[in-house]
Amino acid sequence: MNHLLKMLDLSKEEIIDILNLADQLKYEQKHGIKHHHLAGKTLGMIFQKSSTRTRVSFETGMYQLGGNALFLSSRDLQIGRGEPVQDTARVLSRYLDGIMIRTFQQKEVEDLAKYGSIPIINGLTDFCHPCQVLADLMTIREHKGRVEGLKMCYIGDGNNMANSLIVGGLKTGMKVSIACPDDYRPDQEVLDFATGFDGFEVTSDVLKAAADADVVLTDVWASMGQEEEAEARKKIFAGYQINGEVMKAAHGDAMVLHCLPAHRGEEITEDVLEAHADEIFDEAENRLHAQKAVMVKLMGR
Ligand code: CP
Ligand code: NVA
Fold first, then answer.
1. Nearest one of 108, 123, 105 to 51, comparing CA atoms
2. pLDDT for the residue numbered 300
3. Best probe residue, ligand 2, of 129, 165, 229 (max atoms within 8 Å of C-beta)
4. Residues in Cβ contact with 39 at an 8 Å cutoff, skipping those fewer than 6 apart
5. Could you tell me the pTM of the whole model?
6. pLDDT-based confidence at 80, cuts 50/70/90?
7. Ligand nearest to the CA of 222
8. How many CB atoms lie within 10 A of CB 184?
9. Interval between CA 42 and ligand 1 midpoint (Å)
10. CA separation (Å) from 84 to 4, 41, 43, 112?
């Protein structure tokens, strides 16, 4: 594993390896055991979109690993004024030991990896959000003791989260059902990957998707970059919500996850979010531990 560009690139073994290391790093951090695996190393963090969790967890994680992190807003970088990614990649490779990038097009992340010579970590694109899904799998394992054989149900937009959950879930032996409007299904590349798995289903029927689910997830109806569609999407996605009725269809002890930020009353009700706050904020915390594991795997050699 040289980069983390998308879940499709990882094998089941690589995913489990990251989750195991994340558990260990979490244990060490909680017990005050130093783990300076990246002493003297620097991570550059390029942000073309907003972030709370990704920025703070990468920056803090790098500090806890003994290294440094640089926040690089695209508003200030020459990349924001049109400097090609091929050149940016080659220049930054001369200074840094790794780059985390959050941007729009998946191709930009793939190009950074192609032209640069240091590990690249995808901190979210329109196509996927692998760091989030590693944290989600870690949280499921923590609360349920396993992931294999469990049913995951995702309700909402077939977006970057849906794409990554499908791949991460299926690769680790979960059943995955997706409820979304017909015109907002996950990417074809992901559907092509998923068709080979028995436990995969896409439907527009929310309660059918949620039936007997062990984990129920959702995400915003309008992602970053879709702000102008937000009002129209409220109508299109009405009903694609985690609420009491959905939780009744799911398994009695089903957990709820949300990558956050959440819009209460849209994709999730206030009641469900608050009833599952422990799980959801463990999930947010686990971004830190899962990403530290990714950085150690990629930059620790
Ligand atoms: N879940 C997530 O990636 O959060 P941020 O957008 O705050 O980084
Ligand atoms: N789908 C959301 C995820 C935010 C973490 C977005 O891309 O804005």
1. 123
2. 96
3. 129
4. 65, 66, 67
5. 0.98
6. confident
7. 2
8. 17
9. 21
10. 21, 25, 20, 10
What is the Å distance from ligand 2's center to 229 Cα? 14
**Cβ–Cβ contacts within 10 Å for residue 59, how many?**
18
Dig out the tokens for 240 from the structure: 């694609």
Which string of b and e fits 247-277 if b means at least 16 CB within 10 Å? bebbbeebbbbbbbebbeebbbbeebbeebe
Count CB atoms within 10 A of the CB of residue 52.
10
From the CA of 129, give the closest atom in ligand 1.
3
Residue type at position 152: M
| 198 CA distance to ligand 1 middle (Å) | 31
3-state secondary structure of 276: coil
Residue 233 — very low, low, confident or very high, per pLDDT cuts 50/70/90? very high
Q: Which two tokens stand for residue 187?
A: 């990417």
